[in-house]
Design goal:
Elements lengths: L2 E7 L6 H14 L3 E5 L2 H7 L2 E4 L26 H14 L3 E6 L1 H12 L4 E5 L15 H21 L3 E6 L6 H10 L3 E3 L7 H13 L5 E6 L6 H13 L3 E5 L11 H19 L5 E6 L2 E6 H6 L6 H10 L2
Parallel strand pairs: 1-2, 1-4, 4-5, 5-10, 6-8, 6-9, 7-8
Antiparallel strand pairs: 2-3, 10-11
Helix pairs in contact: 1-9, 2-3, 5-6, 6-11
The structure holds 6-O-phosphono-beta-D-fructofuranose.
């Protein structure tokens, strides 16, 4: 293998730049020429390829987002479009592709792999919802951002005896809510993977105030259903009569400088992805399991599902009595 390319696809996540840097530097270190594909799979189809040298990834390890830009590319499902992408790669002589992104990106990579093209994925999404890995790039930073934001809201909550419902991101998964909820000592957590009982939530809030608490924080995952934060806030206000506010943290959770952990894991995953291509291990995704770097075949992942750690959910419940 002489030339490889790297792209980021789907939603950006803090740490993607550190992963791009690792791919480029490890690639050059091992004697490869490395290209970057701009604008994800759309850019691949359009042949938007740029040669990356050591300097092109200088001064980016600490930056959020992705220097390669992202795109969702809805029409990458068709074989025609995939073949067009493969022609673009062939034209430049690129023999392997590294795809950084969430479940949509991995699906795109799997399609190229089915066409026989050597592809390696790196899981990158703040949602932490990719099967086959305990961790996805960006999750730690997003949780830290949410915790920091809620710590600030908490000042107002306690100064005014308020209840705050905070809606955090997570398109389908409750991981951000779970870790944030533990991190801020939330009274209640609402995630898509567990049933919730509004009466129990109300009872917890009332109990808290009765024993002298000056505020209540309820963390809700957006993935429960659209508008869940606002809905919960209204319901709690009506049922308790307590001053209740809703804050939707939104995209601020996706930006910012990656945490040290995200920089580390992105660097490790980026280098590992290059090594796998060099060892002719293709059609796989790099992941972390029990603290170790691993890789799994893409076709296996397509049938798998991300499983949330419900022990943490029960821990949260037992700590917020
Ligand atoms: O997948 C990451 C994520 O930030 C989700 O948490 C969120 O639901 C979604 O992307 C938002 O996507 P967009 O930026 O396209 O609105």
């Amino acid at each position: 293998m002489k030339k490889i390319a790297v792209l980021t696809s789907g939603s950006d996540a803090p740490g993607m730049n550190a992963a791009i840097r690792a791919v480029v530097r490890r690639g050059i270190f091992s004697g490869l020429e490395v290209y970057g594909v701009r604008n994800g799979f759309r850019g691949l189809v359009e042949g938007d390829l740029i040669s990356m040298d050591l300097g092109s990834v200088g001064d980016i390890i600490h930056r959020g987002g992705t220097i390669l830009q992202n795109d969702y590319c809805e029409n990458f499902q068709t074989v025609e479009v995939q073949k067009k992408a493969l022609r673009q790669l062939k034209e430049v002589g690129i023999e392997g592709l590294i795809v950084i992104g969430g479940n949509g990106a991995i699906k795109g990579a799997e399609m190229l792999s089915i066409q026989g093209y050597p592809t390696v994925c790196i899981p990158g999404t703040i949602d932490n919802d990719v099967p086959g890995t305990d961790y996805t790039i960006g999750f730690d930073t997003a949780v830290n951002t949410a915790v920091e934001a809620i710590d600030k809201i908490r000042n107002t909550a306690s100064s005014h005896d308020r209840t705050y419902v905070i809606e955090v991101m997570g398109r389908h998964a409750g991981d951000i809510a779970l870790w944030t909820g533990i991190g801020v000592g939330a009274e209640s957590l609402i995630i898509p993977e567990a049933e919730y009982d509004i009466e129990d939530i109300i009872a917890r809030i009332k109990h808290g105030y009765k024993r002298g608490k000056t505020h209540s924080i309820i963390v809700v995952a957006e993935g429960v259903r659209k508008g869940i934060g606002t809905e919960m806030g209204k319901m709690i206000q009506e049922k308790t009569g307590f001053d209740t506010k809703v804050t939707i943290l939104g995209h601020l959770q996706r930006g910012g400088a990656p945490s040290a952990y995200d920089r580390m894991i992105s660097s490790q995953m980026g280098a590992k992805a290059v090594d796998l291509l060099n060892e002719d291990k293709k059609g796989v995704m790099v992941g972390v399991q029990n603290g170790q770097l691993i890789y799994r075949p893409l076709e296996e992942l397509m049938e798998d599902q991300h499983v949330i750690n419900l022990e943490i959910y029960h821990l949260a419940r037992s700590l917020s009595i």
